[in-house]
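Section 5.1 Outputs to date
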Amino acid sequence: MQFSLAANYDVDLASPLGAYPVDEVYGKLPADSVGGGRPSYMGTPLGWRKLAEYVAALSGQGIAFNYLLNSSCYGNREWGRSWQRQLMRLMARLKKAGILRVTVATPYLLELVKARFPEFRVRVGIFAQVDTPTRARFWEDLGADAITLESFSINRDLERLAAIRAAVDCDLQLIANHACLPNCPMQPYHQNGFAHSSAGDGGLFIDYCLLRCARKRLQDPSLFIKAGWIRPEDLSAYEALGFHSFKLLERGIPSAELIRRLDAYTTGKSGPNLANLVLSYGFREPLKRSRFWGVQHFFKPRDVAPNRLVPLLDLARQQGMLFPRENTPVRIDSARIPSEFLGQVGHCQGGTEGCGSCRYCDEIAREAVTIDPQFRDESLERFASVEASLADGGLWDV
């Protein structure tokens, strides 16, 4: 078993990570010419010198760094001379910084890196949506060294996972601790929004999909159970299928939370509240930000009057998105999830065919998921107000 762990660029964390089976840490600069899978405003403030220091500290523990070039869209800039030159400079700087692993999400970029930089190990990321044996073979034939499967929808389809594992020889990886909606219908829109908001384009990005997802989970707590996370206690079942590499989220979160997640999955023990392992926001410790963070990312007078964004930022603060939060209002009681849970959902087609008459996850949610009532009521009221403003033009007064 080995782990690919999210980066928060805490150099002091490198030494403790050496005690765990961490193969690599993944991340990227807040913005570059390629873009990636998170908006720049979520990125830890970082430059090339600090990145090289962090990579060197990891290397001292025998841990590699995987740089994310996992944008799903380049706006057709990849066919121009300027973008090509920027990419060549970026790859050269990665190599100089001691980075020889990258993650991509488009076939062209995989071919390009393999042709011009054969010394790099290339992983195909989740945004490539590899969820069948045919798709996995396509990427392997194209030269992929490793593939992170489309874990949002197939982590609980053990038969399909076994078929994919049998179809290819390259390394395969699963994301273990995400809380995304199963087979999320917003995924293409979401990842394309991330792509353009992390490529230095400079426009305003409002994470509509994250807001919609968070609201749906509060309205229907069973979605906390239906998400395709893998319990630490169940990793051995996936290893029996031939999966030995697991990716742990989330980038930029506090070091103590990263260690909590790594420790849980290494020991096979969830701890009392599974929400602590799968939620991507709502932490007590504040996130690291650049100076003038709000002005840099949200002061976009040509797009929207800044004062119109105040309700949106207030909602984010109340949820603990991008802001610290004193306590966790959501609890998923690990002790109330049956020991035979994976055996029941391990052949689930709910993500692709709909849940139908099966109410297994709903029944577990009634027992295991609790949400602070005051937080839930206030949140739903705020979500409704912000989403109405986005839809009816009130945010822009049009």
